[in-house]
Amino acid sequence: MTYRRAAIPALAGGLLLTALLWWAGASAHALHLPGTTNVIGGRAAAELEHWLTPWSYDPPDSVRLGAEVSGGIGDTAGTDSSRYLALYTTALQIRFGAVFAFFVPGALLLVRRLPPVHGRMPDTLLAVWAWGLVAGTLAVTVSAPWLIAAHGHGSYRLLPQLASAISSGRQILVATALVAAAVTVLVARVTAKGAGPLPQNVVPARAARLAATAGTAVIALSLVVLSYQPVAAALQTVSPDGGLFAEPGELLRQWLLLGAWAGPAGAPLGAWLLPRAADVLLLAVVWWALRRLPGLLTRATIPAMAVGAVCATVLGLLASQLLRVATDGAGLRWGLLHLSGVIGGGVPAALTCGLVAGVAAAVTLRVAVRRAETADATA
Q: What parts of the sequence cross the membrane (predicted)?
């Protein structure tokens, strides 16, 4: 598929994702209406407000309070207050613009290298859905400094504040990204008609398995080694001597760790093994996706493999989180809405580890294919 044909669905999906997130944020004020609590309950309304506030132009109370405290007397107070509120508006403008800017290139690459034809439609849908989560997370990340400054205390514990800001707004992304991915794939299927035969990428099965194993090993390094409690605690305590970049531990964990685990420590073995089943599911999804990815791509380039590995890691995280929600015994007490708040987490680490895993898989694939071709030539 040419870039021109692939650009149309990527642009359509980016515009729709941005519009859906804006609409979701604009709907946050409806949760304060008197009848809302009576219909969905106070706890559900508070939970939904927590999900929608990161995408709302209506400043939260913390921003208004920070503006009032930081203001001076008379005209100076009004000027400072308006500046902080303007910073919040700027942060949201950057956030929505960044969603579009990050979604379009990734969707363009996926639609071009993984067109939704010849049985690839479910694979393309899942990949674009995962990339929508990545684009939203990156948008939250790049806009976070303005949002922190809008609270009036940007220089205090900057990195912990940044880690907290990055983790917000992910729940609503899961739903909006799925809708945007569905529209992107449907439009791509229309634009792919008449594009001519697609190149077939024939990959030896052994080379594909080796590439999948190499990529999964990178994910396992984060999930098994770095996420082990003593190692994670060591990362948490890393800190330079004061300054603006003090206390980077939480940010490092956010971008490097795909999970968290420790030994049984006297707990029943079955209760300890059940969460580990979710970790195994994550690794299985990543290996299976990386095993199939070279054959699905029209050309297994390093960028395509890297983005595909990121999407595979995000999908593996979603699958493991859904398994945890389904097996959590506290569901009846806290409600499904509260439990679903864990869905969509871990995307920053999935981006970091997925990029490295994709590059490792692509390099391993090229080496294995070259060796197979050399062996066939000398046979």
A: 92-112, 124-148, 168-188, 208-228, 269-290, 302-323, 343-365
Same structural domain for residues 214 and 230? yes
Domain-terminating residue out of 198, 218, 240: 198
Torsion angles phi and psi, residue 228, rounded to 5: -65, 135
Q: What is the pLDDT of residues 90-149, one digit of tens each?
A: 999 999 999 999 999 999 999 999 999 888 899 999 999 999 999 999 999 999 999 888
Contact 124, 141 (CB under 8 A): no
Are the beta carbons of 166 and 130 closer than 8 angstroms?
Answer: no
Among the listed residues 369, 346, 332, the one whose alpha carbon sits nearest the alpha carbon of residue 134: 346
Choosing from 198, 227, 258, the residue where a domain stops is 198
Structure token digits, residue 50: 């927590």
Cα distance between residue 310 and residue 304, in whole Å: 10
Q: If you average pLDDT over every residue of the chain, what do you get?
A: 86
Burial track 118-154 (b if 16+ CB lie within 10 A, e otherwise): eebbebbbbbbbbbbbbbbbbbbbbbbbbbbbbbbeb
Count: domains in the chain: 2
Q: Give pTM, 2 decimals.
A: 0.91
- Coil, strand or helix: which one is 228? strand
| Cβ burial, residue 164 (10 Å; 0-12/13-18/19+) | middle
